[in-house]
Amino acid sequence: MRFDHLTIVAADCACLRSFFVDVAGLEEGARPPFGVAGHWLYLDRRPVLHLIERPDAPAADGIRPSRPPARIDHMALRIEDAVEWQKLLRRLRDRRIPYQLSGMHAQQEQQLFVTPVPEVTVEFVIEAQRLG
């Protein structure tokens, strides 16, 4: 298993994008059409940081609350093979931990979302072709 990506939901994605591209050295890259504004930032050709514009973000006039709420939405771990994926499913079932499966058809990936504690979400993802 390896770290896959981190998603941040914030009111000012342009500022975050500028920081992570111009200061931290990430590169903006391809992003699926999710229906919400945002950016995928890449490190070593991997999309490691997903920025999502908060739907209730302030208008373009720039007026913002003094401390706009932002949040880290979830972390993701990539599973490399079907055996490891099945072991994960078994561990979740054995512990009666609920999860939700979701496929990203454009990227041909299987996603599994689990909320181990309130307000904390972890995504596990595997390439669909690895599942057979």
TrEMBL record:
<protein>
    <submittedName>
        <fullName>Extradiol dioxygenase</fullName>
    </submittedName>
</protein>
<dbReference type="InterPro" id="IPR037523">
    <property type="entry name" value="VOC_core"/>
</dbReference>
<keyword id="KW-0560">Oxidoreductase</keyword>
<dbReference type="InterPro" id="IPR029068">
    <property type="entry name" value="Glyas_Bleomycin-R_OHBP_Dase"/>
</dbReference>
<dbReference type="GO" id="GO:0051213">
    <property type="term" value="F:dioxygenase activity"/>
</dbReference>
<feature type="domain" description="VOC">
    <location>
        <begin position="2"/>
        <end position="127"/>
    </location>
</feature>
<keyword id="KW-0223">Dioxygenase</keyword>
